[in-house]
Every structure is written in structure tokens, then in C-alpha cells.
Design goal:
By secondary structure, the protein is of the alpha+beta class. It has one domain. The chain is about 35% helix and about 35% strand. It is built from three helices and five strands, in the order ααββαβββ. It has a five-stranded mixed β-sheet with strand order 2-1-5-4-3. A hairpin with a 3-residue loop joins strand 4 and strand 5 (about 90-100). The longest helix has 13 residues, at about 1-15.
């Protein structure tokens, strides 16, 4: 149980959970998600998306928030929104827009 609350604290720090949306069931789902690796879905401006996995979401999210711009196939994109999707398949959605030249 203590490990579960440690994870909750880490998810709150990373912004994956907010204190307003915090509940035990959601926490259990988030912990299971973190233990199995984290799926990232990058939503491109042309309505396509790319999916990949990261092994440690707690290290990945602060890095993503620091850089704020990512590159894919020699094009730069600005990160506009990051959201934890809690559907049947849980993942992190990163919404991108074309970066100013």
C-alpha cells in the first residue's frame, strides 16, 4: 500500500493526476500503466498520430515539458497539450502543432 501512495505522489508531481481528480481506482489504473511501460500517442497537425513506448514516464514528462518542441522526420512541432487518457487502453496523448519557422 505504501508503494501505491509513493506512485500517487510521483503522478501528482508529474501532472498525470490532479488533486481534484484523485481517486483510488484511477490511481490503481495509473500504477498498473506505469509498471507496464507507458504508451505515448503523438497527435500530428494533419490528424495522423505516432505511437511509441517509454519505460519511465516520470523521467519522460519533465523532459518533454522542458523542451516544448519535438522533431519528427525533419519537421519541428510545438507541444500544445499533454493529457492522460483513461479509456480501456490507457495512454498519454501529446498534441502537436507546427512550430514557427
Amino acid at each position: 500500500m505504501f508503494r501505491l501512495w509513493q506512485k500517487a505522489h510521483r503522478f501528482l508531481q508529474c501532472g498525470l493526476l490532479s488533486e481534484q481528480s484523485f481517486d483510488y481506482e484511477r490511481l490503481q489504473k495509473a500504477v498498473k500503466y506505469d509498471m507496464n511501460g507507458s504508451k505515448i500517442r503523438w497527435l500530428l497537425p494533419d490528424d495522423n498520430y505516432i505511437e511509441n513506448q517509454v519505460s519511465n514516464i516520470a523521467d519522460f514528462l519533465p523532459l518533454l515539458q522542458m523542451v516544448n518542441v519535438v522533431s519528427y522526420k525533419a519537421l519541428s512541432y510545438k507541444v500544445t497539450h499533454i493529457e492522460l487518457i483513461l479509456d480501456d487502453e490507457m495512454y498519454i496523448s501529446v498534441v502537436l502543432e507546427e512550430a514557427a519557422q
